[in-house]
Amino acid sequence: SRSPPLPSTQFCHITSNKKPRKSPTDKTVSVARGRGKANGVAQHNGDGGDPVTLFEVVKLGKSAMQSVVDEWIESYKQDRDLALLDLINFFIQCSGCKGTVRIEMFRNMQNAEIIRKMTEEFDEDSGDYPLTMPGPMWKKFRYNFCEFISVLIRQCQYSIIYDEYMMDTVISLLTGLSDSQVRAFRHTSTLAAMKLMTALVNVALNLSIHQDNTQRQYEAERNKIAGKRANEKLELLLQKRKELQENQDEIENMMNSIFKGIFVHRYRDAIAEIRAICIEEIGVWMKMYSDAFLNDSYLKYVGWTLHDRQGEVRLKCLKALQNLYTNRELFPKLELFTNRFKDRIVSMTLDKEYDVAVEAIRLVTLILQGSEDALSNEDCENVYHLVYSAHRPVAVAAGEFLHRKLFSRHDPQAEEALAKRRGRSSPNGNLIRMLVLFFLESELHEHAAYLVDSLWESSQELLKDWECMTELLLEEPVQGEEMLSDRQESALIELMVCTIRQAAEAHPPVGRGTGKRVLTAKERKTQIDDKNKLTEHFIMALPMLLSKYQADSEKVANLLQIPQYFDLDVYSAGRMEKHLDALLKQIRLVVEKHIETDVLEACSKTYSILCSEEYTIMNRVDIARSQLIDEMTDRFAHSVEELLQEVSGTVAVCALLVFCFSAHDLTRWDLFGNCYRLLKAGIEQGSMPEQIAVQALQCSHYSILWQLVKITEGVPSKDDLVALRRVVKSFLAVCQQCLSNVNTPVKEQAFMLLCDLLMIFSHQLISGGREGLQPLVFNPDSTLQNELLNFVLDHVFIDQDDESQSMEGDEEDEANKIEALHKRRNLLAAFCKLIIYDIVDMPAAADIFKHYMKYYNDYGDIIKETLSKTRQTDKILCAKTLILSLQQLFNELLQDQGPNLDRTSSHVSGIKELARRFALTFGLDQIKTREAVATLHKDGIEFAFKYQNPRGPEFPPINLAFLEVLSEFSSKLIRQDKKTVHSYLEKFMSESMSERREDVWLPLISYRNSLLTGGDEDHMSVTSGSSSKTGSVRSKKGRPPLHKKRIEEESSVEGSWMMRNDTLQTPGALQTPQLTSTVLRENRPAEHMPDPDSDPQMQMSWLGQQKIEEVNRKDRTAMNYIKSRSNQGVRRGLMEDDAEPIFEDVMMSSRGQLEDMNEEFEDTMVIDLPPSRNRRERAELRPDFFDSAAMIEDESYYFSMF
C-alpha cells in the first residue's frame, strides 16, 4: 500500500502530473460581469422581496445549507466567473466590510490591490464585525459560516475542486486576507481557511481509503491464475488508482498552500482568538487523519502554543490533545511529544485560569490511563494536592485523577474474589485504608470535607460504604491484618462524618461553589435514598461507636455530629426507640466525662436537634434532657458554694457552663444568679481560675439574651423591663471590672461581651416600632469608652516582636500566630462596630486611624471599612477625626524628637504617606466632600499655629511642620475654596512670616503655594526645596490611572474655571459634579449660609464668612484673568482636563499596578515560545523534533488591530 500522504513539511515538495499551480499573488482573472442573480444564487427573503446576497442567506440560516451550496454549484457550472465573484464578496461581507468587489476590479487587479481597496472602504467607526458581534443571531451565523464552507467542499469534492480554478481563487483570496492588517479580514479569513483545510483533510482521508481499497482489489485480481484473470478489470483498476493518486496529489497541494500560506503565520497571530482557531483545527486534523498529521512535525505547533499568554489559546491546546490521548491506539505516536511536553502539561494544572487548570488535570488523567509509567511520582504528587483546591471544578478533576491512580482496581480476578465479601474484607476495605493514609500524609487534616467533595463524583461507591467504615472501627482485625492506629481511627471517623454530610446535604462544603443550587429530581431522589440508608445504619451503629470511643474527645465530638443528618422519623416508623435510648444514655455519659467545649457543644446541639417539635420522639428526649439539666444544676449550685470557700468541683461547673452555650432556654433554672455571685467573688478575691471565669461570663451573657428574647416576643411588663435592666447593668459593671483582670482570656472575653451587649442594648433596640423597650437602652459613659479604647490600644496594636517572644519555643508557632491575629482582629472589629453605629463617640476612632499604615497588613481592611462607614454617617466629623489622628502622630513625634524635626526622616514621611492615603479616600466627587475637606484644613491650620515658639516670634511655631502634612489634602479642595482657605491661613500669619525663605519655613511656603490660585497673588518661590510635585495623567482605555500624584496649582486658573460649562468632562470620561461659583452664592438666601456661632466644631461657618469677604476681589481677579487669557481660554481648558489625575483604589499593590499597566499591550505582544529556544536545551533534544528554529524560514508577523 502507498505510504501516508502529507508527511511532515513535505507539502512544498509535492509535485503533480498536472500543470503547476499559479502563485496566489500572481493570479489575474478575466471574467464577464453579470448581476442577473444576487451572488449567483436566486434567493429571496421571507417576504417575497428582492433577491438577497449569499451573505444574507447564510446569516439568516433559513435555507438548508446543502440546498444553498447546490444552487451555488449550479450557478458555477453556468458561469464560474460570476459565481466566484459572488463567493469572493461573500468572504468580504462576512468580514464586516461594506465594500463590494466589482467586475473591473476582479478582471484587472491582483488580490493585494483588491484587498487594499476593500480596506479603504472598511467601516472604521466600529470595531465589531460578524464574528465578534454579540447575540444569538451572530453566534448562529458563525456556525452557518463554518457549515457553508464544509458543505461546499463536500459537494465539490468529486469534480469542481480539481478544475484548478475555483480552489486556486479561494485559497489565493483567503491567503491575502489573512495577511491583512485589518483584524476583521484576518480573523474571518483564518477561520474560513482553517475550516476549508479541515474539509480538505476529510477529502484526503476518503481518497486514501479509496486508494487502499483499489490497491487491494488490484493485488487480488493480479494474483489470480492466468485463466481467471480479467485484464480489462486490471486496466480499469490501474486507471482508477492513477486518477485517485492525481486527485490525492492535488488535494495535498491545496492543503500545502493553506498550511504554509496561512497556518504557520496565523498560529502566532497577535490576536488570541485567531491563534485559538488555528490550534483547534490542527487538533481536528491530527485526530481525523492521524496517519498524515499525527507526527512530531505538526504536534510541535501545539506544544509550543502551550506556553501562550492567553488562557483561551492554552485551553484549545489542551482540548486538542485530549481528543488525541482519548484514543489509546495513538499513544505510540504521542510518546515523544509526551516526554517533551509532559512537564509543561503538569505545570499547567496550576494555571491561573481555572478552566485551563481543569483541562490540564483531565489531560494528565488521560495520560495516566494510557501509560502509568509516563508520569513520575513527583508529577502525580503535583496533582494530588489539588483535591484541596477551593475551586471545585479543579478539585473534582484532581479527584478523578486520584481515583484513577489510587482507587481503581486493576486485577479482575482479585475483584471477583473480593466482591463476594462484605465489610472490612470487601474490595473497599483496603481502598478505605488507602484513603485514610492519603489523608494523613497530605497534612491538611482540617480539610477532610474538601477531600470528600473532590472524590464524590468519581468514588461515590467507596465513600458511601459506611458499613465497611464502621466495621473497620468496631471489629477486631482478622489474622494477618494490620490494626488501625489511633491517628488513623480519628482520620477515618472525620472522613466518615464528611461523607455523611455530603450525602445528606447534597451540596459542596462551605468555601466551594457559589451556594446551594436547586437539585434535580434525580439528585433529590438520590439524596433521600442516601439519607434513609445512613439513618438506618447509624441508628444502630452510633451508640456502639460512642461507647467504644467515649473517652476520646476528638472522636466523640465528630461522632456527635452524625445525628443532625438523620431522618428522625425512622426512629418511630422503624420502632427503634431502644436505639434512641441507647444514644441518649451515651450522650449523658459523654457529658459527665468531658469538659472540652467542642464535645459539650456537640452534645447540646444533638439534644436541640432531637428535641425538635416536629418529631414524635421529642417528649422522650426532652425528659432525658431535663433530668440531666436538673442534676447538673444541683451540682452547680453546690459547686458554687464550695468555690466561694475553696476551688473545687471545677469539672461539674465547667460542664454545665459550656453545656449552656447552645440554643437551649435554661432561664427557668436561674443560672444567672449563681454565675454573678461566682464572678463577684472572683473579682473580690482575685483567685478565680480563668477557665471558670470565662465560662461564667459566657453563661451570664446567654442568660441575658434569652431573657431579652422572651421580652421581645411578648408584651413585656414594666417590672420585666426593670428587672432585665438591673441584670444588664450589673453584668456590664462586672465586665468592666474584668477588663483589669490579670488573666488575658478573661479580659478578652469581658471586652467582647461588653461590645456585644452595648451593640444589642443600643439606641437601635427601639427601632422598628419597639419604643416600649426604651428602658433597656444603655449608652456607655466616657469612662467606659476610654477603658474600651485603652484595651484595644494595649491588646490589638502590639508590636510583632512582643508577640513572637511570647510564642517562642512553641512547636506550632505559625498556627498560634494566625490564631492570635484572628483574635485581635475580632477585638478590633467589635470596637469599630461601636464607632460605626454611633455608640462610641467618633473622635475615639482617631486612635484607630493613626495605625492604618503601620498595621495595614493585619487590620487595613477593618480600618478602611470603618473609615468608609463613619464618613457615610457624618462627613465633617469624620474629617475632623482624620486630622486629629494625624495631629496625635505629630505630637508623638515632637515628644520623641523635640521641636527641631528632621523633615526628611522616615517618621515624618510616614505621617505624610498616611495623610496621602487619607486624602485618596475622599474620592473624586469634590462637591460632596467640600465642607469636610475645608473643615479638615481649618483644624490643621489652627493646630499648626496653636503654640508659638518660646524663643520668639522670629522663629516658626512649634507645630508649623504640620502644614507639610496638611498639604497632602490641598488637591481635594475645589478651586474656589483654596482661596478661602488661603485667606484663613493669612489670618494666622504675620507680615514677617510672608517674607521668610529659610528652610525651617518651607512647610508654610509649600502649603501656601498649594493653595494659591489667584493670578495676582504673591506666588512664593522656593530655591532650597519644595514639597509640591508635578502630577501626571495616564488614561488607559477609559480606566482610571493607577497612580495619583499631587499637582502644583498654577497661579491663575480660577478665571478659566469660570469660563467653563458646568458639565465639563474630567479625564477618563468621568462626569464632573456641577460647580457653583462663590460669586453666585452671595445672592442665595441667608438660611444656606452656616451660622458662625451655631456649632464651630461641626459646621463650616468660617468658610462662608471668608467667601463673603472675598467675593468682590475674586470677581475682579476672574475678570482680569478672562481678559488677559481670552485668546488662550479654550486651550487652557483642554490642558486642565488633562491635568487632573484620577486614581483607583489606593491599596493596589505595586505588582498589581505593573500587571494592569501591561494589559493594554498584551494584544500586540508575542506569545511565549517553548524553552527549546534556549541553546543548551535545544542541544539536549533531538534535532529534528519540536525545535522552533525550524520555523525561522516561515516569517511570522504580528499585526495590531486596524
TrEMBL record:
GO molecular function list: chromatin binding
Bias (Basic residues): 1034-1045
Stretch list, region Disordered: 1-28, 1015-1057
Record keyword Cell membrane present: no
Keyword check for Lipid biosynthesis: no
GO biological process, one term: sister chromatid cohesion
GO cellular component entries: chromatin; chromosome, centromeric region; cohesin complex; nucleus
InterPro entries associated with the record: ARM-type_fold, Cohesin_Scc3/SA, HEAT_SCC3-SA, SCD, STAG
Cell compartments where the protein resides: Nucleus; Chromosome; Chromosome, Centromere
Chief location bin: nucleus
Composition skew (Low complexity), residue ranges: 1021-1033
Domain SCD: 263-348
Alphabetized UniProt keyword annotations: Cell cycle, Cell division, Chromosome, Chromosome partition, Coiled coil, Nucleus
Pfam families: HEAT_SCC3-SA, SCD, STAG
Sections of the chain in a coiled coil: 227-257
Assembly notes: Part of the cohesin complex which is composed of a heterodimer between a SMC1 protein (SMC1A or SMC1B) and SMC3, which are attached via their hinge domain, and RAD21 which link them at their heads, and one STAG protein.
Similarity section: Belongs to the SCC3 family.
Main function: Component of cohesin complex, a complex required for the cohesion of sister chromatids after DNA replication. The cohesin complex apparently forms a large proteinaceous ring within which sister chromatids can be trapped. At anaphase, the complex is cleaved and dissociates from chromatin, allowing sister chromatids to segregate.
Protein name: Cohesin subunit SA
Species for this entry: Oreochromis niloticus
